Amino acid sequence: MKKPTIKAWFKIAVVAALTLTGAISSQSQILWDNPVTISGTPDIDLNGTIVKAYNIGERYDVTFPDIYFADFQTNTVDNYLSITSPASIGQASSFDNGSWKGAPPYQAPFDTLDSSDYGFLFRGGIYAQANQPLTVTLSNLTPGVEYQVQVWINDSRNYGNTRNAILSSAGGMDSAPVNYNQGSTNTLGNYIIGTFVANSTGIEIFNISSSAGGQINALVLSVIPEPSAWLLSVSGLVILAGCSLFKHKKISA
Fold this sequence. Notes:
This protein is α+β, with helices and mostly antiparallel strands. It has 3 helices and 16 strands.
């Protein structure tokens, strides 16, 4: 079998780099980190530029020094976010099990948080009825730009059994189980972070599924440094390396 020449390998490397760049821009698959237990305001990831943040299922905004959470209810019409379900969706302000108070003393588990306003994010939420999933749609995204979405899910009520949610995107990657109810009071749920590159439609969709029905309490959408920058750098290095090897081979010959 004829072995590929340096020139052939160079062509393969260039095509592979260009293909990789195009694939990442078109797949629009959300890559989920591992869920983390809610603990305090340092949970809020300020990586990149905030597009918009939402206090979901509540009628009140929440303001922090570095970020503003706008209220989002079942009837809210928004440029970036919509939440739907095959079943009816509802909202409640009881996911804190009565723990959240506007002023001290706070009750467990909200007494462990460093901010009353942060706890307020987890009192309300939107949920799907009839054990159906929630569908979260992010719109008006810029194609080719990398985004980060941070989602909080919490239910501090006592149901006697744990409740986990799975977040899944059209790209096919499911998250690890997001533990948002541990079957007893005095517990807090999880948050999870996902990253993706917006496709040509400017729309990203993911589902939140649970045996008790999908639920969401808060969400932050951010723009982070585009992967195209480092991909182009890698592609450039591959091309330069190929050119160098080809030139060296030609001179040696």
